[in-house]
């Protein structure tokens, strides 16, 4: 019976793109924890096994600590990083909107001079949500834009300044150099790495590459609506150490906290990450 239930769970995990090594380790843990001989008769064994598996998975993504949150009345500068198309610009506005509704004085700075139309996209999103923004059609230096935008909003007393940066199609030196320069001038309170939840096993390498360049404190996984189940992201966490901490997780070795998941293209489609509901969704 244990083998049967474990097979079902393994199937669900593979479908969610959790990597094979991690599934194997998880299975071993479950076999160790779940001692069927010692269960009194009358207890529903299948339910118990499922609960053990669920708890094991939660342990992998629950850091037991809260992800980073901005503090009202202080200047909180948040820098967003991630590859092009990961959902950075969309998520910046979602996060701005989320905290604006909680009473923060929020604004957005666009430093993406790489992708054509990036500033227009941020401008449109921000205007729709009535969030003050800064950007330029003529300035081509992202570092200068970051300095100007952050200085302006700091002097105007904003308490949450969200800086969107440009991405590239892949992890490349130029992108990382730019990210580092912006981070050096902006001195962010927190840097959030935005990861596309549909990339599966590539999550590991991507998380590592970004984390080694900038001091990332949180991850937001996007596109968790549709088919993406985020198993790749969990694997990325697990591959880095023995326990995972949070999606908006916490990857222990990286000390990364998953804070939110993106669940659609609209401004409301952002949910705080909670291990239980995430694992519940992942397991279907
Ligand atoms: P950027 O290049 O990283 O700034 O990415 P964008 O913010 O432009 O997003 C790329 C595409 O992904 C856009 O079409 C967004 O509407 C879409 N997108 C972003 N977040 C989500 C999400 O959580 N779910 C879905 N379905 N689409 C998303």
TrEMBL record:
Compartments, record wording: Cytoplasm; Endoplasmic reticulum
Keywords: Cytoplasm, Endoplasmic reticulum, GTP-binding, Hydrolase, Nucleotide-binding, Ribonucleoprotein, RNA-binding, Signal recognition particle
Domain Signal recognition particle SRP54 helical bundle: 1-61
GO biological process, one term: SRP-dependent cotranslational protein targeting to membrane, translocation
GO molecular function: 7S RNA binding; endoplasmic reticulum signal peptide binding; GTP binding; GTPase activity
Role according to the record: Signal-recognition-particle (SRP) assembly has a crucial role in targeting secretory proteins to the rough endoplasmic reticulum (ER) membrane. SRP is required for the cotranslational protein translocation for ER import and preferentially recognizes strongly hydrophobic signal sequences. It is involved in targeting the nascent chain-ribosome (RNC) complex to the ER and is proposed to participate in the arrest of nascent chain elongation during membrane targeting. SRP54 binds to the signal sequence of presecretory protein when they emerge from the ribosomes.
Domain comment (free text): The NG domain, also named G domain, is a special guanosine triphosphatase (GTPase) domain, which binds GTP and forms a guanosine 5'-triphosphate (GTP)-dependent complex with a homologous NG domain in the SRP receptor subunit srp101. The two NG domains undergo cooperative rearrangements upon their assembly, which culminate in the reciprocal activation of the GTPase activity of one another. SRP receptor compaction upon binding with cargo-loaded SRP and GTPase rearrangement drive SRP-mediated cotranslational protein translocation into the ER.
Protein name stated in the entry: Signal recognition particle 54 kDa protein
Protein source organism: Clydaea vesicula
């Amino acid at each position: 019976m244990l083998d049967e239930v474990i097979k079902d769970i393994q199937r669900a995990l593979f479908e969610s793109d959790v990597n094979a090594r991690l599934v194997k380790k998880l299975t071993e843990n479950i076999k160790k924890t779940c001692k069927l001989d010692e269960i009194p008769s009358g207890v529903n064994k299948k339910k118990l096994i499922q609960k053990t598996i669920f708890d094991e998975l939660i342990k992998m993504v629950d850091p037991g600590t809260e992800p980073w949150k901005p503090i009202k009345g202080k200047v909180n500068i948040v820098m967003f990083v991630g590859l092009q198309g990961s959902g950075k610009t969309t998520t910046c506005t979602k996060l701005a909107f989320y905290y604006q509704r909680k009473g923060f004085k929020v604004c957005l700075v666009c430093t993406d001079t790489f992708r054509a139309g990036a500033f227009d996209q941020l401008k449109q999103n921000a205007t729709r949500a009535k969030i003050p923004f800064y950007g330029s059609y003529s300035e081509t230096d992202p570092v200068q834009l970051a300095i100007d935008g952050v200085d302006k909003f700091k002097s105007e007393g904003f308490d949450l300044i969200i800086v969107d940066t440009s991405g590239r199609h892949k992890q490349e030196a130029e992108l990382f150099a730019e990210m580092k320069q912006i981070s050096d001038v902006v001195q962010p309170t927190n840097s959030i790495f935005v990861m596309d939840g549909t990339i599966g096993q590539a999550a590991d390498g991507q998380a590592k590459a970004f984390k080694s360049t900038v001091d990332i404190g949180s991850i937001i996984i996007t596109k968790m609506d549709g088919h993406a189940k985020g198993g790749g992201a969990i694997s990325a966490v697990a591959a880095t150490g023995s326990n995972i901490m949070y999606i908006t997780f916490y990857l222990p070795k990286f000390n990364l906290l998953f804070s939110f998941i993106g669940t659609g293209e609209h401004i409301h489609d952002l949910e705080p990450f909670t291990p239980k509901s995430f694992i519940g969704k992942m397991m279907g």
